[in-house]
């Protein structure tokens, strides 16, 4: 916060920078990775796609690494297990560790002990629970911050999970295209529904946020017409919604799509998901302390 | 026992003495402020009111920072003082994000100095020995808990005796800042808050601050 002029500190609306500038970029990236990792695991578990589950596990490891880079004292990371009763970061850290551990066991069982169906199902379901937890906690960690009105919304966790699911489904689509394509049509149908749901949730979130406070309204204005407009309209709206939905609708009517077009949609969705996390974290503004009523 | 402050806004002249006393007392590095003086205004010409608020951590009874801290580094003592255990902080900054008053700072550059390229001042040299700050951890006002603890150990009363009272309180040239025990119904601070209608700064944040402001 050193670039804030002393006489402007909390007298003007102040942008949140601790979770977006410098090392803060890594927590935004970790939130993104947590979302797509959880979404990819859930989708892969549903379609019983081993490669998808493995990639989800790798993405979760990457999330952990990104988290560590964000910390000033990463070697004290073990202390982050200490306060799960009240801290969403502590809860999230436990969810990530459990997801990584349970998915690892599931992968081992699936690969080398395929006859242990009972154990596979148990660990797959348990890992699925923590995949969901890993995906949704990022939203709760953000929405718990009552000081930033644009974040302090019950829709944020839903938005983050849905966005993570679209990214995860997109990656699974790429994995499916490279292998057995028998489930491709069904996967495309699910993606269409989730994409439309995501567009609606973003719309409801922005609409709802404008009514919560003046600071939140200003944040939405910055998103849709201010300094964050390029990130929102190009990153979130164009890449995250318009391009994937347009391709999705086109493939629905055409019946078949070329791999090039589908890969464009997949990359576009992933960029959109990343842009959404950065846009929301960047939009965070604190209510000025002066003038006080 | 719960330590608290009452700040009389009409007495405050915005001299920044509280901010400087805090910096000197805790040997705070450049760009780190545990105490700030906010100067704003409200209204439109010609009916404009200048606002001067001396602000610091509110040592809230319901502190968001304590709840969000994943490691337990941010703690609240029995006397209400919220402080950060530097040895436990991982630097995740969740407390900084969650504080609605934005009264926390991250001390990042351990080599920062007031006059870069020159020798450290005597004050900076003494500070590195007497009050070392660990880089990469979050910092905040601690209500001068060292003064309170050592004062009480000597049988002194915080808010009454200088040596047991926070530096910002005793430095104030207009005696705008009062300090004392909020749990003692007969304390001077409770009398002032009651008689002069002290109120919390932004009570809508719902954190029950231990600092009251008097208009």
Can you put this structure into words, describing what you see?
The complex is a heterodimer of chains A (293) and B (215). Chain A contains nine helices and two strands. With 293 residues, chain A is mostly helical. Chain A has a two-stranded antiparallel ribbon. The model of chain A has no long low-confidence stretch (mean pLDDT 91). With 215 residues, chain B is an alpha+beta fold. Helix content of chain B is 23%, strand content 23%. Chain B has helices at 17-25, 64-68, 94-98, 122-130, 145-153, 167-171, 188-195, and strands spanning 3-8, 35-44, 47-56, 74-76, 82-84, 105-107, 137-139, 177-181, 199-200, 211-214. In chain B, the strands form four sheets. Chain B has a four-stranded mixed beta sheet. A two-stranded antiparallel ribbon of chain B has the order 2-3. A two-stranded antiparallel ribbon of chain B has the order 4-5.
Give structural attributes.
heterodimer, A: 293 residues, mainly alpha, two-stranded antiparallel ribbon, 72% helix, B: 215 residues, alpha+beta, 4-stranded mixed beta sheet, two-stranded antiparallel sheet, 7 helices, 10 strands, 23% strand
Question: What secondary-structure arrangement, pairings included, does this model have?
Answer:
The complex is a heterodimer of chains A (293) and B (215).
Chain A: E1 14-15, H1 24-47, H2 50-70, H3 88-112, H4 117-143, H5 155-178, H6 184-209, H7 214-225, H8 229-254, H9 259-283, E2 285-286
Antiparallel strand pairs in A: 1-2
Helix pairs in contact in A: 1-2, 1-4, 1-5, 1-9, 2-3, 3-4, 4-5, 5-6, 5-9, 6-8, 7-8, 8-9
Chain B: E1 3-8, H1 17-25, E2 35-44, E3 47-56, H2 64-68, E4 74-76, E5 82-84, H3 94-98, E6 105-107, H4 122-130, E7 137-139, H5 145-153, H6 167-171, E8 177-181, H7 188-195, E9 199-200, E10 211-214
């Amino acid at each position: 916060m050193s670039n804030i002029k002393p006489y402007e500190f909390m007298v003007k609306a102040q942008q949140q920078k601790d979770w977006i500038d410098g090392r803060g970029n890594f927590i935004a990236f970790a939130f993104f990775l947590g979302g797509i990792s959880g979404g990819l695991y859930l989708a892969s578990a549903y379609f019983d796609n081993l490669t998808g589950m493995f990639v989800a596990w790798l993405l979760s490891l990457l999330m952990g690494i990104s988290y560590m880079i964000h910390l000033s004292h990463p070697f004290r990371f073990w202390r982050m297990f200490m306060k799960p009763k009240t801290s969403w970061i502590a809860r999230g850290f436990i969810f990530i560790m459990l997801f990584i551990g349970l998915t690892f066991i599931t992968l081992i069982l699936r690969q080398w002990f395929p006859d242990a169906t009972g154990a596979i199902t148990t660990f797959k379901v348990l890992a699925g629970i923590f995949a969901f937890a890993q995906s949704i906690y990022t939203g709760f960690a953000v929405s718990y911050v009552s000081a930033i009105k644009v974040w302090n919304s019950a829709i944020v966790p839903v938005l983050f999970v849905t966005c993570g699911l679209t990214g995860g489904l997109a990656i699974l689509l790429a994995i499916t295209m490279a292998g057995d394509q028998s489930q491709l049509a069904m996967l495309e149908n699910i993606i269409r529904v989730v994409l439309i749901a995501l567009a609606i949730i973003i719309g409801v979130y922005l609409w709802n946020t404008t009514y919560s406070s003046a600071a939140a309204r200003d944040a939405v204005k910055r998103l849709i017409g201010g300094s964050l407009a390029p990130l929102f309209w190009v990153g979130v709206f164009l890449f995250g919604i318009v391009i994937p939905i347009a391709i999705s609708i086109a493939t629905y009517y055409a019946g078949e799509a070329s791999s090039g077009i589908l890969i464009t949609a997949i990359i576009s969705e992933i960029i959109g998901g990343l842009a959404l996390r950065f846009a929301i974290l960047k939009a965070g503004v604190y209510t000025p302390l002066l003038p006080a009523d | 026992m719960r330590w608290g402050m009452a700040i009389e806004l009409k007495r405050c002249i915005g001299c920044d003495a509280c901010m400087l006393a805090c910096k000197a007392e805790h040997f705070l590095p450049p760009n780190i402020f545990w105490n700030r003086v906010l100067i704003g205004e409200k209204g439109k010409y010609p009916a404009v009111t200048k606002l001067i608020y001396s602000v610091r951590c509110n040592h809230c009874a319901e502190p968001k920072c304590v709840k969000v801290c994943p490691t337990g580094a941010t703690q609240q003592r029995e006397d209400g003082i919220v402080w950060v255990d530097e040895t436990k902080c991982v630097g995740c900054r969740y407390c900084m994000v969650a504080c609605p008053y934005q009264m926390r700072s991250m001390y990042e550059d351990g080599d920062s100095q007031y006059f870069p390229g020159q020798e450290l001042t005597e004050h900076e040299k003494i500070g590195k020995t007497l009050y070392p700050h660990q880089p990469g951890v979050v910092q905040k006002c601690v209500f001068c808990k060292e003064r309170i603890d050592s004062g009480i150990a000597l049988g002194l009363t915080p808010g009454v005796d200088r040596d047991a009272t926070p530096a910002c309180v005793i430095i104030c040239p207009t005696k705008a800042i009062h300090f004392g025990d909020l749990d003692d119904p007969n304390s001077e601070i409770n009398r002032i808050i009651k008689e002069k209608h002290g109120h919390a700064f932004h009570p809508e944040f719902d954190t029950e601050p231990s600092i009251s402001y008097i208009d």
